[in-house]
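Q: Please design a sequence for this.
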């Protein structure tokens, strides 16, 4: 009995160890339940078409991949494969999924086996460590020396000799000795070495009139090389290296120095001191062809260029010179060159009659290269110019058309001449390991590279290098064990077969060490010989043992026996399948009696060997001589015809090369057929003359569209249509067979054009294919369906399975009865013919397919069998069939076939041969091989060890061959005909065994991390735990968590996904680390969302708006803005009248819209339009011809309209009508008029107002986008408030309108102190909705009947109405919407996405937020929880969530809620890695990792790791110390006294504050005190500061009084302040030219200081010279950026350090000026702390730098680009700038004796973001210094140490949103702590008591 799945409760959480699948109904699945064990190898098997792929790929993989992709941004998601949401009730506990399929869609030649396995990445890191450099000129070793190594070399090798230590000085051209010698003397140098002699500089006459050489060797010292001179020698070497810029020369002699003295040259960089040739430093980029540093500049790293292909010029190397070796010389045109060749060959003594392949190598090179590289010169001198020279001569004449055509015949992509195919710059080949360049290693087969790699010796202390080598060895061994030992790393990925690519990807995943991932594999054993199956099983088990789950669709018995769990789907195929037959271990399956799989596993069923094999006929074979393509070893072979011949051999032995490239392609050429690919190299092929046809029957799709069906393919549909046309009803109506064609017939449905469905584009979801509402999926019009044949319509017949149709047509033979015997007989014959054809399909095991099933839905195996059946039917129907009518070539036809399907296939193959065909089958399946008449076994191994004939003969002959691997398996098969038993299975001897710690440890292992400031750290991060990373600000926390763990986890997962997607997604750089393993798929919840400009809202940030737009575009109803009535279709006649009236006023262009705002080349659009007679297109407002239409910019949106006609003024309606009909047809119901003023008028047969005839375009999501001109309100351009005074700059020549609008948006959202305050006034046109009038009048109405059933009234919603609601209210509105039918299908996924996002907003306490609230008004806590809510919806398990300070902006009360959410995430089976300083978070953590001990270069080390109690005890941990010794408040012992509350002086007072949720509150703030505003997240703190306090201060200080209404009633006391400054967290600069030094202003002082240096003054340098923005001083190569932008084909643009200035930004002349030994470029590389110490004598510079260091940002570099700073870092820079300016003004006032009581008001929001506990005390010190200087400081803060330190505390609440906005308590911290209702009070009491 089949195992039935018991009903299981649909629990919310899955058990820990299984993936719960409930109610799987995808495709033919019958709604069964399944528990898939996690961490196991599960195999899904069953007959073809039973539903295996529907379960594994369309259900389980689709859900796992879809959920993980949901965690990416909308922009990123659009590039991933859009997986349909599977039809399943529920799936719980699913990890992120990766599919490893057989399909190879990779087309880029940059992708190689080495790159996709990441072996190249490790090799490029290993090479700089192990490679030895040699000079390309003198071949001597090159290595950088140090003063110590030179010292040791001289004393060790040349002891006792006298040496002159010299350095080189450049002598400018034409420098006179009289000028040069005194210069040297003035520097103290008296001796130089030139022209082989020692010359004194005080004796210029000794030069004897000779000129100075370019480099003069100046003697630094003369010293004897002995131990007692060590100090003197060291000093001389160091001085010579310093003055010689890293180079020195040593002259050795035992006595006097003469010309015979020995010269030794040394260099501290990669320079050959003898040849003075500098090599680039061996960085990893130098050894990568995907990096601009290493890629060959000629071929750009592709390894090939377009040029002469010698294989085309000399296609047959078996020919001699005289026989026409050079094809180009064989005609009459260039016969002269043949004569030249023969004449030169005679002169040289080269044989004219010897085959080229037999000539000596030197003679071959002479023939190709010639005797002179210049062909013109060689010809004039009577020399041979070579074959290459001949084509070079022709290239010079390619301006002639006939020459270009001639040369093109011999051109192809050939090996790049500069890099010789190695892809790298020549510099890279100067580095070798054991004599091998990296390109040599790439071209070695894996089996040869692996032992070579292991032989490399590595010093014992170099653990990092050993780790790299071991990692490469490990990945190479995975490839070898997967049966891929024959491939090399430089093999292009696009040339791999589907099976090879699948196994490569499998080993890549194994090497990537991903864990907690679900891998879904599609028959990985395809293409593998039985010998290699065991190796593959070992690889899969290794992947499982690393902590992953494998779900494998497979039919291979060995894989089933190795599985932990077997799932059988069946019992039949198609509609008879889809049931869960069995789920359990293999033993249980074998015990089942009604399992088709068990029948074959146990031997109850088997494929029998033929009783008699066909005999081989003499002279009836194909003879192949000298096949030498790829690894074929000059192979001679005979393939018999008229039999079933199997080509077999181990993987990589050359089978596909022989059949595909050598046999098939050459036969195509010999028969004059078109062959797109180059044929394989072969001497000759004979015996093909007797073949009538040659057919390659592969598994490529039969069709790309759903229009072709099995009935059409086998020719049965023609007869079926004829039968229907011969019915009485059809005859009466005069219907012909063509009427029933759904591809072009008149009977097909016009709406769907006979497809039966309509495609609905779902921009943010996978596209939907819904049933055509007009024909309800039948494909035909109603009157066509009324014509019946034996009671069935044409649609009914197409819905029959092939088996059902066969029986039905058999019955139709006997029931034909029309009264006309002749007609009845004809119909009966046709019915019999259809039944016979279908019977062959049934015999082939395809009876379960439906007659009308689209062919593009078939699997590869089904398509291949259908092709065989098609050929069988064709040959059986042929009038004359010969014994050798056709040769059929099949490549692994058993792919995707169950045992039972293989039995059916063998019968089909035998029948094909019996019909007179010849079959050549590439196959590894022993069941097929044993049934062959003849077997050809290639080998004996793969790759270079293959390509030879091992044995050929009958299967019995092969079985007797001991050298044949196939023979061994055949022998075993013949010995025991039943299926192999477990005891006799060949198990792999080298099963993959991981190190025990790799299998058992549940952690992320990092070794040798050097990213940014990390100091080569190694760490184990536990998985499935809540881990906190803490440490001082700048200690390396984010580097570890984000730049290392997150980047590597996401990069590895992305590398396993779509290559297309990775092209557009921001590619993550591989971090600087030796080794990372155990990383699960990662999701980052970053510290700050991009709040965008004034257009970003809560709805857009949460993506609710994206799906609302989609919902309204697909299901909304357009209403007329003028009449408010639904628009109706406008007839063609009405449109004609409208256009006629328009034409009376002037000429118009009649347009048909084709493309609207879509990206792409769109060449196919132009081509299709041209076929419809369109000559001109309107493309983005410009007219373009369809003829010679050039591709458009691919990633830019385009709008294209077809110009149907240019209608002149006064044209009549009669003339217009056919043009309008054509336009309506092309525009699918919509046409456009382009009027004389270039304005557009839209007319539609679909969308027209019945009252005023106003027409509208089809609804599109862009119509509802306020970020696009398609949807925004024209008056406010999508801002929602009036921007009349600040309109976008009118279009200018140098700036586009879009750029102007973007700049305007940036300007409107900036807060500039010097900008006059302008209040935001709601836009009167759109009333704040941001949308244009058309969008505002689209209404959405739920289905009335459904809403009535659920107890709700029908609703009509507008998108702006929903947008005005809170998240909670919007959720209620969405619940009232219900749709049925097609609308229900469309709405299903959209509503689910909206409801899910709104639900999770409520879950994290944000239900009160209005959807249209601007994102820039959100508090930090609200923004943080929005990000978290977006991630919670994915409901994944096994994921690593990396969070950056999730508690920022959260009140301590809300912090508890957040931590509960994070713990729940962990308990679902996920890992959390949280960068955090919050002590409550650390107390909830399982593990804490503390980094330090300092910041910047003083950090980057693991100080302590363990649970909290361990950190508290660790004396080295700064975090532990702070937790042990909490801060005492107040720090200074007492608080500042508050001004008298009875007096107005000393207070800033605001009454009636009512912005957002503020409830007419009154607040007073003491002047000259530290005031802290606190309260729960969303209570109104930020609203008060930014929308009330700041505007009130601005208004009071402004001379111009605003008349606009203000969000407060009264404001007093602001006359006591001088200025107001908001110190926010917005970026301090947008480009790399802005840096801390420029923002704080110290760079100006530093530049002035450098301009005062004597050397600068002597050269006349001013301060501007030291600006990297100034042309005179900056490096021109990089324009002062320090890096250069490099663009590479098919790769993301990258930036590399400038090689000229080495990243220092300045030119060499500027860098010659130094202050205290440091150039200005080196100063900019200093940290702020280092710079403060360096400039300690310059207080003007040192003071602000010291202030920055005191606030905890001393680790930042002075020249660090501003865009790389976090929001908190930017805020502290601003704070220090203000403090520095304030101190400066105070000092100035005191010096001038001025008295001013007015000071500034500083508004600061959450300054503790990113600060460690120890840095908070520094920040408080800065705030107190500001207050001590008389300023008023108001801070919004949740950090207890900050609000406990306040002089005055204001607590706003009591809750968030509408329940907040009130002053709960105010006063000193001690007073507030006693408040009974304040939620802040309990936390305040706790910290004050500490």
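A: Design:
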């Amino acid at each position: 009995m089949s195992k039935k799945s018991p009903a299981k409760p649909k629990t919310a959480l899955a058990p820990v160890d299984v993936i719960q699948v409930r109610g799987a109904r995808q495709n033919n699945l019958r709604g069964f339940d399944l528990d898939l064990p996690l961490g196991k190898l599960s195999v899904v098997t069953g007959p073809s078409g039973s539903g295996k792929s529907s379960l594994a790929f369309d259900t389980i993989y689709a859900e796992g991949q879809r959920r993980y992709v949901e965690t990416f941004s909308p922009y990123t998601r659009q590039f991933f494969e859009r997986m349909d949401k599977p039809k399943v009730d529920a799936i719980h506990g699913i990890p992120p999924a990766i599919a490893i399929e057989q399909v190879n869609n990779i087309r880029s030649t940059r992708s190689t086996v080495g790159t996709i396995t990441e072996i190249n990445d490790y090799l490029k890191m290993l090479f700089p460590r192990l490679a030895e450099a040699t000079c390309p000129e003198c071949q001597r070793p090159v290595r950088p020396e140090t003063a110590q190594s030179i010292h040791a070399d001289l004393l060790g090798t040349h002891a006792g000799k006298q040496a002159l230590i010299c350095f080189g000085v450049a002598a400018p051209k034409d420098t006179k000795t009289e000028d040069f010698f005194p210069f040297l003397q003035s520097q103290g140098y008296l001796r130089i070495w030139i022209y082989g002699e020692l010359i004194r500089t005080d004796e210029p006459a000794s030069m004897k009139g000779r000129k100075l050489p370019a480099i003069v060797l100046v003697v630094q010292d003369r010293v004897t090389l002995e131990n007692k001179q060590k100090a003197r020698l060291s000093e001389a070497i160091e001085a010579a290296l310093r003055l010689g810029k890293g180079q020195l020369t040593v002259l050795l002699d035992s006595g006097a120095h003469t010309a015979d003295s020995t010269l030794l040259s040394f260099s501290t960089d990669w320079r050959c001191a003898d040849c003075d040739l500098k090599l680039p430093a061996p960085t990893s980029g130098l050894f990568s062809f995907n990096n601009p540093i290493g890629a060959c500049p000629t071929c750009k790293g592709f390894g090939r260029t377009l040029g002469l292909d010698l294989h085309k010029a000399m296609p047959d190397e078996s020919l001699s010179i005289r026989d026409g070796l050079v094809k180009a010389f064989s005609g009459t045109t260039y016969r002269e060159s043949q004569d030249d060749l023969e004449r030169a060959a005679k002169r040289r003594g080269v044989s004219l009659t010897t085959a080229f392949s037999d000539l000596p190598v030197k003679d071959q090179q002479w023939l190709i290269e010639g005797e002179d590289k210049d062909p013109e010169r060689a010809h004039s001198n009577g020399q041979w110019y070579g074959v290459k020279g001949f084509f070079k001569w022709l290239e010079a004449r390619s301006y002639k058309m006939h020459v270009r055509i001639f040369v093109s015949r011999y051109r192809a992509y050939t090996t790049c001449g500069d890099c010789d195919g190695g892809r790298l710059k020549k510099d890279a080949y100067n580095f070798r390991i054991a004599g091998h360049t990296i390109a040599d290693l790439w071209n070695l087969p894996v089996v040869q590279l692996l032992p070579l790699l292991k032989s490399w010796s590595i010093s014992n202390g170099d653990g990092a290098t050993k780790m790299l080598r071991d990692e490469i060895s490990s990945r190479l061994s995975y490839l070898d064990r997967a049966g891929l030992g024959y491939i090399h790393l430089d093999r292009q990925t696009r040339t791999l077969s589907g099976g090879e690519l699948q196994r490569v990807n499998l080993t890549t995943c194994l090497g990537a060490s991903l864990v907690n991932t679900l891998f879904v594999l599609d028959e990985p054993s395809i293409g593998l010989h039985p010998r290699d199956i065991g190796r593959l099983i070992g690889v899969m088990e290794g992947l499982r043992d690393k902590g992953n789950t494998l779900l494998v669709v497979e039919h291979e018995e060995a894989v089933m026996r190795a599985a932990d769990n077997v799932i059988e789907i069946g019992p039949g195929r198609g509609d008879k399948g889809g049931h869960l037959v069995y789920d359990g271990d293999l033993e249980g399956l074998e015990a089942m009696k009604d399992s088709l799989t068990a029948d074959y596993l146990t031997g109850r069923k088997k494929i029998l060997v033929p009783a008699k094999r066909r005999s081989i006929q003499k002279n009836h074979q194909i003879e192949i001589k000298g096949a030498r393509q790829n690894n074929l070893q000059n192979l001679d072979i005979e393939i018999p015809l008229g039999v079933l011949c199997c080509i077999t051999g181990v993987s990589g032995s050359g089978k596909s090369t022989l059949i595909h490239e050598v046999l098939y392609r050459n036969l195509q050429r010999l028969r004059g057929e078109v062959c797109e690919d180059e044929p394989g190299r072969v001497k000759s092929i004979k015996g093909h003359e007797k073949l009538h046809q040659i057919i390659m029957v592969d598994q490529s799709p039969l069709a790309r569209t759903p229009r072709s069906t099995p009935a059409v393919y086998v020719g049965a549909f023609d007869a079926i249509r004829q039968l229907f046309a011969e019915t009485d009803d059809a005859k009466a109506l005069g219907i012909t067979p063509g009427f029933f064609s759904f591809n072009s017939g008149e009977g097909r449905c016009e709406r769907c054009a006979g497809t039966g469905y309509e495609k609905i584009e779902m921009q943010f979801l996978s596209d939907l294919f819904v049933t055509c509402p007009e024909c309800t999926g039948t494909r035909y019009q109603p009157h066509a369906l009324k014509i019946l044949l034996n009671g069935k319509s044409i649609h009914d017949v197409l819905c029959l399975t092939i088996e059902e149709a066969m029986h039905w047509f058999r019955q139709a033979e006997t029931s034909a009865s029309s009264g006309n015997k002749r007609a009845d007989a004809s119909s009966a014959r046709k019915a019999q013919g259809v039944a016979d054809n279908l019977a062959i399909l049934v015999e082939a095991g395809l009876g379960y397919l439906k007659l009308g099933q689209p062919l593009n839905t078939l699997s590869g195996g089904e398509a291949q069998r259908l092709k065989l059946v098609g050929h069988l039917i064709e040959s059986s129907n042929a009038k004359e069939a010969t014994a050798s009518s056709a040769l059929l070539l099949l490549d692994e036809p058993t792919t995707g076939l169950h045992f039972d399907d293989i039995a059916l296939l063998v019968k089909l193959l035998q029948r094909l041969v019996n019909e007179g065909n010849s079959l050549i089958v590439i196959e590894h399946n022993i069941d097929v091989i044993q049934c062959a008449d003849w077997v050809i076994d290639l080998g004996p191994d793969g790759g270079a060890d293959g390509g030879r004939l091992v044995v050929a003969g009958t299967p019995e002959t092969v079985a007797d061959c001991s050298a044949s691997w196939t023979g061994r398996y055949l022998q075993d098969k013949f010995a025991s005909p039943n299926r192999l038993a477990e005891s006799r299975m060949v198990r792999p001897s080298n099963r993959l065994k991981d190190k025990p710690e790799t299998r058992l440890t549940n952690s992320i292992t990092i070794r040798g991390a050097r990213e940014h400031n990390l100091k080569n750290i190694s760490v184990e991060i536990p998985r499935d735990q809540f881990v906190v990373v803490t440490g001082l600000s700048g200690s390396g926390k984010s580097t570890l968590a984000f730049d290392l763990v997150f980047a590597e986890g996401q990069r590895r997962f992305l590398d396993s996904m779509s290559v297309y997607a990775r092209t557009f997604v921001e590619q993550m750089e591989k971090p600087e680390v030796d080794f990372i393993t155990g990383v699960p798929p990662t999701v980052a919840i970053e510290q700050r969302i991009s709040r965008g400009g004034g257009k970003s809202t809560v709805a857009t940030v949460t993506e609710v708006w994206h799906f609302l737009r989609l919902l309204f575009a697909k299901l909304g109803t357009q209403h007329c803005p003028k009449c408010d009535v639904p628009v109706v279709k406008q007839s063609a006649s009405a449109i004609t009248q409208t256009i006629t009236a328009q034409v009376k006023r002037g000429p118009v262009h009649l347009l048909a819209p084709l493309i609207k705002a879509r990206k792409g080349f769109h060449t196919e659009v132009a081509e299709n339009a041209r076929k419809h007679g369109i000559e001109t297109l309107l493309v983005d407002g410009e007219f373009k011809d369809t003829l010679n239409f050039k591709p458009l910019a691919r990633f830019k949106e385009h709008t294209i309209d077809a110009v149907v006609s240019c209608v002149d003024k006064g044209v009549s309606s009669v003339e217009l009508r056919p043009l309008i009909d054509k336009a309506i047809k092309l525009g699918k119901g919509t046409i456009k008029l382009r009027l004389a003023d270039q304005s557009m008028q839209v007319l539609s047969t679909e969308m027209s107002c019945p009252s005023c005839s106003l027409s509208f375009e089809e609804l599109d999501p862009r119509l509802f986008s306020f970020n696009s001109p398609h949807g925004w309100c024209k008056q406010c351009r999508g801002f929602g408030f009036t921007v009349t005074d600040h309109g976008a700059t009118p279009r200018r020549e140098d700036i586009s309108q879009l750029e102007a609008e973007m700049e305007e948006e940036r300007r409107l959202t900036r807060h500039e102190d010097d900008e006059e305050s302008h209040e935001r006034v709601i836009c009167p046109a759109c009333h704040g909705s941001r949308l244009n009038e058309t969008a505002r009048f689209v209404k959405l109405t739920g289905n009335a009947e459904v809403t009535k059933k659920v107890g709700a009234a029908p609703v009509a919603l507008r998108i702006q109405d929903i947008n005005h609601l809170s998240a909670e209210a919007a959720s209620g509105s969405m619940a009232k919407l219900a749709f049925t039918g097609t609308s229900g299908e469309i709405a299903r996924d959209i509503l689910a996405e909206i409801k899910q996002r709104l639900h999770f907003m409520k879950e994290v306490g944000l239900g009160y937020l209005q959807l249209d609230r601007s994102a820039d008004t959100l508090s930090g806590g609200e923004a943080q929880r929005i990000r978290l809510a977006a991630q919670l919806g994915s409901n994944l398990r096994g994921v690593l969530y990396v969070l950056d300070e999730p508690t920022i902006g959260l009140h301590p009360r809300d912090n508890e809620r957040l931590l509960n959410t994070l713990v729940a995430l962990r308990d679902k089976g996920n890992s959390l890695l949280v960068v955090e300083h919050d002590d409550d978070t650390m107390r909830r953590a399982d593990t804490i990792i503390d980094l330090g001990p300092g910041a910047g270069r003083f950090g980057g080390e693991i100080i302590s790791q363990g649970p909290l109690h361990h950190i508290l005890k660790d004396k080295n941990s700064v975090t532990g110390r702070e937790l042990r010794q909490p801060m005492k408040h107040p720090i200074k012992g007492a608080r500042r006294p508050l001004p008298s509350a009875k007096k107005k002086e000393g207070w800033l007072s605001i009454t009636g504050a009512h912005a957002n949720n503020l409830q007419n509150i009154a607040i007073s703030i003491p002047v000259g005190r530290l005031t802290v505003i606190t309260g729960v997240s969303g209570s109104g703190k930020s609203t008060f500061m930014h929308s009330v306090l700041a505007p009130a201060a601005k208004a009071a200080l402004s001379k111009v009084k605003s008349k606009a209404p203000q969000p407060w009633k009264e404001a007093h006391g602001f006359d006591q302040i001088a200025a107001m400054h908001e110190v926010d967290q917005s970026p301090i600069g947008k480009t790399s030219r802005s840096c801390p030094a420029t923002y704080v202003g110290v760079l100006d002082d530093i530049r002035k200081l450098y301009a005062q240096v004597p050397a600068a003054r002597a050269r006349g340098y001013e301060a501007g010279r030291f600006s990297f923005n100034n042309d005179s001083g900056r490096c021109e190569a990089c324009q002062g950026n320090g890096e250069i932008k490099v663009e590479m084909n098919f790769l993301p643009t990258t930036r590399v350090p400038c090689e000229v200035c080495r990243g220092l930004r300045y030119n060499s002349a500027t860098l010659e000026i130094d202050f205290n030994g440091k150039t200005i470029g080196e100063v900019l590389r200093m940290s702020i702390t280092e710079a403060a110490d360096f400039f300690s004598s310059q207080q003007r510079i040192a003071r602000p730098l010291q202030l920055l260091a005191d606030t905890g940002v001393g680790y930042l570099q002075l020249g660090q680009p501003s865009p790389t700073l976090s929001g908190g870092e930017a805020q502290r820079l601003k704070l220090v700038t203000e403090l520095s300016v304030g101190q400066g003004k105070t000092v100035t006032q005191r010096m001038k004796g001025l008295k001013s009581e007015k000071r500034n008001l500083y508004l600061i929001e959450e300054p503790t973001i990113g600060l460690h506990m120890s840095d908070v005390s520094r920040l408080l010190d800065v705030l107190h210094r500001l207050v001590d200087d008389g300023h008023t400081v108001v801070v919004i803060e949740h950090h207890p140490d900050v609000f406990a330190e306040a002089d005055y505390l204001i607590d706003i609440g009591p809750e968030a949103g509408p329940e907040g906005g009130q002053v709960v308590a105010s006063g000193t911290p001690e007073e507030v702590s006693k408040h009974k209702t304040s939620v802040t009070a309990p936390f305040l009491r706790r910290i004050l008591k500490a």
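Q: Thanks. Anything notable?
A: Residues 1767-1792 form the longest helix (26 residues). The longest strand covers residues 1148-1158.
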